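Input (structure):
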């Protein structure tokens, strides 16, 4: 019976090319990163000899094997980005910052989180000490009604709030916040005589009320700032602050300037 030689019915992978190996048709070898298939029986002919071999796949361009990143990144926390000429290193930012893009054609940077509360300083008035004045000019209420805060940025703002219980003899009481320690704009913060509490008039002599006030204050520096609650009276009256069994406090809150 006649025999028909079908040859290989699949490719025969032979691994890396060896000059001493006899290769048959359809044997496949690797050489210099590419692969070749024998189209004749051949021994000692390099895969680049087109009379004996056809290329199956060609090697691409070699990369740098990590050498660019190794030389660019030097410290834990580094990240890599590309500027107009090549790879660049961006060192770790400070705690709490975020990676910020500046748009097309600009390099990324670390940015501070905009908005929110930066810090709060709080002073509470404990005990039954009452602070009293009959003055018609502003005077400090007392030691428990002041708070000191050191801003983290001169572009931020300070929100001052206080709550207190007061009693009066029937006249009108006025309240104000005073600031000291700034490079400018010190003094009483509420112009034209301050905030007026008319409850003493409405309630009658001797009645007590819980009052509160809030002021948003711009700042000029990062110096330590001290805010005090001050009060004065209308004609022929006396005012008491921090009356017995009251819940009184004062606080200063630094807010990011981007909120305003």
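Output (sequence):
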């Amino acid at each position: 019976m006649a025999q028909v030689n079908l040859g290989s019915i699949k490719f025969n992978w032979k691994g890396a090319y060896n000059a001493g190996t006899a290769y048959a048709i359809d044997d496949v070898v690797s050489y210099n990163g590419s692969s070749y298939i024998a189209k004749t029986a051949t021994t000692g002919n390099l895969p680049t000899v087109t009379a004996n071999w056809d290329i199956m796949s060609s090697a691409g361009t070699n990369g740098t094997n990590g050498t660019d990143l190794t030389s660019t990144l030097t410290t834990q926390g580094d990240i890599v980005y590309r500027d107009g000429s090549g790879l660049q290193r961006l060192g770790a930012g400070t705690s709490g910052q975020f990676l910020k893009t500046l748009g097309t054609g600009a390099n990324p940077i670390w940015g501070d989180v905009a908005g929110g509360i930066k810090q709060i300083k709080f002073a509470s008035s404990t005990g039954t000490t009452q602070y009293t004045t009959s003055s018609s000019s502003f005077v400090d209420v007392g030691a428990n009604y002041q708070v000191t805060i050191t801003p983290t940025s001169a572009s931020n703002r300070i929100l001052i709030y206080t709550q207190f219980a007061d009693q009066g003899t029937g006249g009108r009481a006025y309240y104000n916040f005073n600031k000291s320690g700034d490079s400018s704009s010190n003094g009483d913060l509420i112009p034209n005589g301050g905030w007026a509490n008319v409850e003493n008039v409405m309630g009658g002599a001797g009645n007590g009320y819980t009052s509160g006030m809030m002021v948003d204050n711009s700042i000029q520096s990062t110096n330590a700032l001290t805010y005090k609650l001050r009060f004065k009276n209308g004609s022929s009256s006396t005012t008491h602050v921090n009356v017995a069994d009251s819940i009184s406090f004062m606080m200063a809150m630094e807010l990011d300037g981007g909120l305003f």
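Notes: The chain has three domains: 12-57, 67-111, 117-259. The chain has two helices and 22 strands.
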